[in-house]
Amino acid sequence: MMSALGFIVGSACSNLILDIKSRSPTKTPFGTPSSPVLEVAFDDCRILCIFRHGESSKIPPHMVNYRANLWALREHGVRQCLGLSAVGTLDPGFPPGELAIPEQIIDYTWGREHTFCDGNAELQHVDFTNPFDENLRAQVAEAAQMSNFSIRGGVYGVTQGPRLETASEINRLEQDGCTMVGMTGMPEAGLAREIGMRYAICAMAVNHAAGRGNEHSDIHAQFKRYVPQAVGRLSRVLGHLVPDLCEGS
């Protein structure tokens, strides 16, 4: 059964085992998406995915065609979308290897195509007070509980990338209220809101943000240590989430 749920899959999910049944190369009015629209099997369910950074993970965060990705999923029938993203954690209560479903977002990016309102479409001023769909967040939280995992909320600070942040930049994000930092939550969340797509993020903490934590290993050693742990948790959560959403679609 095809679900109205779609995934936008981050590069840290490369060792998430996906049973890809088909690839649909797609063009949109906003260009070519990062990858074909992939039909992925979860037992008896079929969902649609796009790899945010391309299937070879070579597209940097500031060059992702976010507009084409969201548009392509909508054209293929996706009405609710879960962004799967890796983040660094600023919060001692959100250790690497664990998951979060952020409830707010702060955008520090620049120069990205961040709206479908390009002068050729009707101008929209969408309400972005609460940037993520609360029902979808609750469903992810329930799937985590069924998997016997804790899952946190928090504020996602979106930086430009592809370089990582300085310790002083992380201090600034913390002062602003951020509890995690990543590079892809915007304009993805804002674009989803513009086209009426339910959207939430399931964030995997894969490292301590710059100047945080007590580990002496460098950032890449942390990735190597924590990505498999976080992806393992994510896989179990999706195992509960996808069938439930398929039943309700």
Give the topology, please.
Layout: E1 2-9, E2 19-24, E3 37-42, E4 45-51, H1 66-75, E5 80-89, E6 99-100, E7 104-107, H2 134-146, E8 151-152, E9 155-158, H3 167-176, E10 180-182, H4 185-194, E11 198-208, H5 219-248
Parallel strand pairs: 1-4, 1-5, 5-11, 6-8, 7-9, 9-10
Antiparallel strand pairs: 2-3, 3-4, 5-10, 6-11
What structural keywords apply?
Rossmann fold; eleven-stranded mixed sheet; 11 strands; 249 residues
| CATH architecture level-2 label | 3-Layer(aba) Sandwich
Supply the number of helical segments.
5
How many domains is the backbone divided into?
Answer: 1
- What is the ordering of alpha helices and beta strands? EEEEHEEEHEEHEHEH
- CA-based gyration radius: 17 Å
Number of strands: 11
Helix content: 25-40%
Q: From the helix content, strand content and strand pairing, which structural class follows? A: alpha/beta
N-to-C span: 9 Å
Per CATH, the class reads Alpha Beta
* Main sheet record: 11 strands, mixed
Name the shape in a single word. globular
Task: Show unreliable segments.
Answer: none
The CATH fourth-level homologous superfamily? Nucleoside phosphorylase domain
β-sheet strand percentage? 25-35%
